[in-house]
Known about the structure:
Helices cover 20% and strands 34% of the residues. The protein is an alpha+beta fold. Strands 1-6-3 form a three-stranded antiparallel β-sheet, with no helix packed on it. The chain has a three-stranded antiparallel β-sheet with strand order 2-5-4, with no helix packed on it.
Amino acid sequence: MRISYQRRHLIRNSELNEKLGTHIHDDRYYTEAEINAKLNGKSDTSHSHAWSGITGKPSTFTPSNHNHNDQYYTEAEMNSKLAGKANMLATSTIESTFDIASKSWPVINLKATPPTGYHSLGIIGIDNNLNFGEVALVKYIMWGNDIYVALRNLEATTIKYTLKVVVLWIHD
């Protein structure tokens, strides 16, 4: 027996209603009459108005002379005001060159001097001038303005090492 599309649709809807429970239309929804009443008070998008029907327009066109300059800053005024302000963030690079003895584990202490009015947010980068495998960067921390970098010389000879540490500062 073949069941029509409409009959299958009705069967599915009745099964769905049984599973979902009672379907109600309460005050959360608008009725067709309520929607039509609301739309009747609106204009079509293609409507127009006669010039004489527009209210609140200036008596002359172009409207009388006026300017807004006293309400806004010019670019030059803003540049001048901003030039007197400190940046919120700053960076500085501390660089030090030293010898590392053969097969040693030195801890290097670098002093970071914050720009006036700034305090540290921490280390954001460490760079060195050596190829991978000669010196291993083991650990680094920043305590106050002191930077401690633990290294390990993997070579059998004393080597000259340059360390660059970039510190991020925030304005107080």
